[in-house]
Amino acid sequence: MDFMEWHRAIQDFLNELRHHRGASENTILAYQNDLSQLASFLGGYLGPGERWQEVNGAVLNAYVQSWLAQQRYTSSTLARKIAALRTFFRWLLQRGEISEDPSLQLRSPRVERRLPRVLDESEVQHLFAVIARSPSFRSLRDRALLEVIYAAGLRVSEAVGLRLRDVDLEKGVVLCSGRPGRVRSVPLTHSAVAAVRDYLRHRNEVASIEPDAYLFVNSRGNKLTRQSVWQTIRHYGREAGLGDDLTPHTLRHSRAAHLLERGMDIRTVREWLGHANLATTYLYRQFYSQARNGALVSDSVLDSRASSPPLAVSA
């Protein structure tokens, strides 16, 4: 099997994920990266003319313990890459490409589940106030963007993918397509609704107002990228004196902790955030249990933000 054959099998697997398992594009890209690394290693380690059947446990252990180890990945990244190998080789086994699954011999590193960084509500309020100091188009957009990410607990990919039709400012809700095939209707805060209204008055002068048009755009009317949103929140984090490590997920984590602090049921928080696994949501409950003695402020700090219409999730 030549180098192209390695990649052909990987591409067939990625197509399976996309068309039959409903995986998100981010998930597919992660698998593509992980398996392309494997193919590069196999091309040099086994050479041309070999088949998947020749990839045994010793070969995979050499890949993980020598090649991947040299990349100095964190234990969580390494564990994810090993999980990708297991999924891929299980698929090869099901297709009859191999007679035994060599990935069963791989051992994942122990991964400590650290509590995510969470801002308290006064810090969130301060962050938004810093953004609001300027009346520019960019500041209006950035405040609306981060207010929506926080209020709805969105992932950055969900936020940049929002279209005009997804936001109902009269009802104060946003429709979010998270996991494939599932759309959730999530309430916005009063502050987020006001920020989006302010932004739209300027946005609609530079971009299409068709329902399918993207909600958050740059000054040329183009869709924002995930990378630009990461850069944006880090910039404002520094300006607000909140450090250099703020990410869009910091706002998502913070919203989850604040909802639990308000007494929301953990299963409702799970649906709010679109978690596939309840265990992920329990991580926020652990944070709240440790922080309830003073790390998070009371509801009175942001009482004007507590707009909470019913949460709806559809398949």
CATH class of the largest domain: Mainly Alpha
CATH-defined topology of the largest domain: hpI Integrase, Chain A
- Mean pLDDT, to the nearest integer, reads 81
Q: Count of helices?
A: 12
Sequence stretches where pLDDT stays below 50 over 5 or more residues = 292-310
Terminal-residue CA separation: 42 Å
CATH superfamily of the largest domain: Intergrase catalytic core
The assigned CATH architecture of the largest domain is: Orthogonal Bundle
* Shape assignment: elongated
Q: Estimate what percentage of residues fall within beta strands.
A: under 5%
Total E-strand runs: 4
Q: What share of the residues lie within helices?
A: 40-55%
How many structurally independent domains?
2
Major sheet attributes: 4 strands, antiparallel
Strand arrangement in the largest pleated sheet: 1-2-3-4
The helix/strand series, from N terminus to C terminus, equals HHHHHHHEEEHHHHHE
Q: Which structural class matches the secondary elements? A: mainly alpha
How many whole angstroms does the radius of gyration measure?
23 Å
Annotation keywords:
single chain; 315 residues; mainly alpha; DNA polymerase, domain 1; hpI Integrase, Chain A; 2 domains; four-stranded antiparallel sheet; 12 helices; 54% helix; elongated
Task: Give an account of the 3D structure.
The structure is a single chain. Helices cover 54% and strands 5% of the residues. It has 315 residues and is mainly α. It has two domains: 3-105, Tyrosine recombinase, N-terminal domain (DNA polymerase, domain 1, Orthogonal Bundle); 121-314, Intergrase catalytic core (hpI Integrase, Chain A, Orthogonal Bundle). Strands 1-2-3-4 form a four-stranded antiparallel beta sheet, with no helix packed on it. Helix 11 (266-273) crosses helix 12 (278-291). The longest helix has 21 residues, at 25-45. The model is unreliable at 292-310 (pLDDT under 50).
